[in-house]
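Can't paste images in this forum, so I'm doing it all in text. The chain is below; anyone willing to post the predicted structure tokens underneath?
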Amino acid sequence: MRSNFGEVITAMVTPMDSKGNVDYDSLEKLASYLAQNGSDSVLVCGTTGESPTLSCTEKIEILSSVKRAVNGEAKVIMGVGSNSTECTLKFIKVVEKEEPDGVLVVVPYYNKPSQAGMISHFSAIAEKTELPIIMYNIPSRTGVNMLPATVAELAKKFSNIVALKQSCPDMDMISELKLSCPNDFVVYSGDDSLTLPMMSLGVDGVISVASHLFGKEIKSMIRNFKTGEIFAARNMHLVLYPIFKKLFFAPNPVPVKELLAYKNFVQSPAVRLPLVMLTEKERTELLRVYNSIAL
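Text version of the structure:
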């Protein structure tokens, strides 16, 4: 495998206080906990980390803080993508000084580039950095779908394009990706509820939100599947499925932040506008589902 990020990558929240400031104490405590509880790697400043509302200065400080907190117990991946190739390249050069283990680069959003445009975008980035790159395909947010043939062309051309986060509930695309990409190219599920189904088609692991709370259980599910304990893997999937879905009944990361505050992993469930916290009715329903998980 050209990726050494492991099987469970947690797309980490950015804890904030009630005034919307980054809570660095909670950030470091949470990062350390994740590294010791099932996460092979942590991804900072992705969508779950509320990257659209973070300043560049905050992003660099978050990366530095998380690297210090995990202290080599987990890899640290930095979200660097934007809808501007030039801005992405400039930011990567700043990020490189902090020496992350890799970067996550999303398909450009809003611009709606063609497949040729995506190839040019990722090629320009891969040519200008030696950092391992995970591409991120999430059509529901970007407005465009990066096709398997596009992924394969990039994976074959650039050895530092090491993986894909696939957040698209199309199983045929997984089959096409595995057929067309190099054998050492890694594909991660970008949806907790689809991890096990996608693994049956060759997906290697997950970039997860639920692993904030169930990292060891998700790791167990993946390991059981890979070692042939299919029924154990399926049973764990079914146990966790209700919370997999409930974590996305409101915009991510609002529900997971609520649960992290409930479990005292962070001091506050605060999010930045335009996101808002759950209503009391929504919170009650979320806690009901969480507390119903029998492990």
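The first helix runs from residue 24 to 35. Residues 50 and 129 are 24 Å apart (CA to CA).
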